[in-house]
Structure prediction request, 433 residues.
Amino acid sequence: MSEIIYNFQDGHTGSSISITGDEIVITDCVGIPVSSVQEVICHPITANERGLGGWVKFVTRNSPELPEKNYNTGWEIKCDNEVYTGLFLAKGNVFWYGCDYSADGWKKANADMEKMAGVVKEMLAYKENEEQQKESRLVYGEKHREDGFEWSVDKNGVLSITASEGGDGRLSPRRITETVTHSETDNGEEYIKERERILGYEIPWKEYTESISQVQIGEGIRTIPDELFASLGTLKKAVLPSTLEKIGVSAFAYSGLEEIMIPENVKTIENKAFEFCRSLRSIRLSVSLSGLGNYTFHGCEALREINIPEGVHIIWDRTFWGCRALKKVSLPDSLKIIRECAFLECKALSEIVLPEGLEEIGEGAFSGCDSLKSISVPDTVKKLGSHALISCEEAVIPRHITNLDEVFGFARSDKRIRYRKKSLFSFLFRKNN
Prediction:
């Protein structure tokens, strides 16, 4: 945690503000990165405005979405010709104030606010100077050689990566390791052994991370290692080669990625590969996939539609958890298992066709899918986990499913549930399995 540079506690409201070298944190709300603050405006309280508290306004860019919040303290803030009660947070702006009805309290509040604004302004000036120095060090278009690949970043923010001649097709940044020791006993004798533990990787283009908007990976590259493009907030698009076979754990997680097409030879997408890519709107999956890993698209709030290709037989735990805009999902006939909480809190999902041949739906698989009013479960499903269909108001299920209180919750008396008539397909399926 960064050292606290400034801290202020409002005695009337219990609200507080802390400023570190990296963040501005207001009470229990989301921290705002100092690097996202564009302007600081301070409006002190005047003698005739003591009933309308003064404020400090932080104008931000590329900030996290702040929750709309009002502490309802009874004090009023007049800002931009609007009057707010209490401390008001809105997307992109933070309003902070100090107010006191005692004789000199408003003067102290002013001093606190002006000091607070001054601290942030000094930090912004320092960071701006730091950025200018950093920018002067960057050389755009220059090729850099690494083990097995070369890379460059142009003035348009395009990161180009190509395989080196004779390389093995892997992008292998230098590992950051530490040596750890442990003891082992053999025939009563104790031995001390050492091993290397991987702490992470040195990202070669670290100095350019705030300017990279697109990644282009050349032919010959077969794997993208874990976390290679994670947290690239300015990244919008990635162009991948036809030779690619594997995308590693959290490879693009927490990035600003908006669209991507997965090449047809990709067989493996590891856990959390696109987790919290909040701007990801469009993705086309590879026809060579056999499964989707845990948390693969967790928190991809802008994703509206996805077509899962034939060949995928399992959707792992929480793959689409929190994809709130996801409205249309196409499932393949090859699908056998939907694991625990796979579609948890997909609020916009209004319909889904479960394929014949599906065998298992895990615990809470469709829990929190508030728009999914009805669902039809094929006879091939042998197991329905607890709360799997708790949000559905109407369902058609196989006759052999009997744990209804678990599947639909104890309010199932309010739901319309009926058993499916036996079909020739289900008879043949059970006979052959």
